[in-house]
Amino acid sequence: MAIPARGGFPQATADGALSMACSSNEQHLQPYFESRGVVFHPHLIRREAGRSCHVYYEPSVPGFRASPDDSPLRALHVSVDSLALLSGRKERVGDSLDVAREVLPKLERPLEIQFSLAVDRPAALLQSAIRREFPDTLHKLAIQTGPPEDFAPWVQDILKPGEVSGRERILVTHRLFEGSPELGQSTLQTVRSFQNGPYSASKLSWEGGDLQFARDPRDSTKLLLFYGDSAKGYWGEDLTNEEYAYVLQSEFGADEAIALGEHELHVDYLAALLPGTRTVLVSQPQCDGRAAGALLQVLEAAFPGIPAELAGLRQLVRKYKKKDWPEARVRGVLAQARASVARWPHKEDTAGLEAINAYARQHCPGDPKRCISGLSLQNLIDNHAGLLASWVTMAARRRMSDMLPARIIDAIEIQVLGCRPEQHTRARERAAVLSQLGFRVINVPWIPGANGWAGISYANSAAIGRSVFMPEFGLITEEALYESIRSQLPSGTQLVPIPARFLMLMNGGIHCALAFSREPTTQSP
Question: What's the N-to-C CA distance of the chain in angstroms?
Fold first, then answer.
C-alpha cells in the first residue's frame, strides 16, 4: 500500500518509494522484511482493518552510511552567485561568496573546493573570476555549473556525504522545497546537476541542514542522526513520529535517530557539533531585552535620518530596563514603525545609482536585466568593471534593506515581550538530551524572529578542523559574545567570526552555505 506525499508536495518522493507492508498474519511480516534486507522494528507495527502493518522503505543507495561530522574533510562545496563572482565586488555583504572568501584562506590544509555556479557562462570567464578571487590558493578549485537564474545558496540542504563499502558516496535530495512547492520546481535542475562522480539521487526530499550526524560518544562505532521535522510535511504526514524517524534512519544508515528540531528551525540553527571534541554548541533563546538596543542600532545605520518612529523607540530603549519597559507604549511605537517602513529613506550611493541608470537607459532600455546577461554582460566586464561591481553591490544592499525593517522590528518586539515559554522548554530539553548522550554542551544565543524569519542563530556555524566559523550579523554586542564562547571552547579550538548578515536575513548562516565531502571511515575492499 503506497504512502502518498501530502500538503501540496506530490513530487516529494520517487514513485512508490514509501509504502506500508500489511498482512493478516503478523508473524509473516518480519520474514518478509528480512528476505529483502529491510530493517524491521516490531514496535512500529500498527493494526489497520484487521491487518498488521509496518512502514516499508528500501534505502535509495543500499549500504549507504552518512559521514559523521568529525570525519576528515576531503572537499568543500559552496554555491555562489555567479554575477557577484564575475563582478569582482569588493564590499562584504555576508553572502555565500563572502563566506568562501573568509573561510578558504583560514583552512588548515589544502582541500578540493567545488564552486556551484548556476549560470550559463563561458568556462574561461568563470575560471578567470575564481582565480582572481582566490589567488595563490593552496586549494584545488573546481567549478560545477547549473542552469541560468537558478541560484540557491543553500548547498548544505542539497547534499549529504557518506560512503558505501568504504567508497565515497554523496546523497542528493530528491527535491529542495524549503516549504515551497514552487522552489522545489525552480531548483530541480540545480539538484539534477549533481549527477556525475560520487553523487546519487535520493528517493526522498529532505533539507540537509535539518540532518546532522555524529559518532556516539558512548560507542564511537555507532552513528547518531539528529533530525528535525522539515521533511515530514512533504512525505511523512501519514507517518507517526517514530515511523518518520525510521525512514530517515534507514535512508542514511544511522544506528540511532534523535529528534532535535522544531517547526521553522533546522537542526543546524539549533546545534553545532565540534569535530573530535564531543562538544556541541546549543542554541538558547535570548529574549531578555539585552539585544533590543543592538538590533535598533542596525536599523538606524541602514536608514539614515533616523525615522521618527525609530527615534521614539530609541528613547524608550535608553530610558527603561527590560523589566520596566511599558509594553503597550512599545507596541504602539513598533506598530507606527511597521506602517511607515515604505517611506523610510534607503542608504544609497546616489552618484553610483545615477551612473547605473544612465548606462541602463542607453544599453538596455525598458529591461535593465538585459544588461547583465549575454554579450551585454561581457561588455560590462570588459569595459565597465567598476560599474558592474557597483551594480551588484547596490542590488545586494537594497535586498538587505528591503528585508531588514520587518525582521528587526519583529525581533525587537520579542525582546520586549519575551519568548514563547515552549521555546525555552525545548531548548532545555535539547541540551539535556545531548548531555545525557555524553556531549559537553556550550550554550550560545539565538535571537528569535517571527513571521517566517528564524532570527539570528550563532549555532549555525561550520566547525572545520580546529576552527569554528561563526556567523556575524553586525551587532555591537557580538564581540563580547564571541569572547564568552571562546572561553568555553575546548583547548586548541579557535572561534572565527564570519560576516553573514545577508545569509542570516534569509534564514541561513555559515553551515547552510557549505556542504562537506568527507574521507571514508572504512577501507574500501
Answer: 38
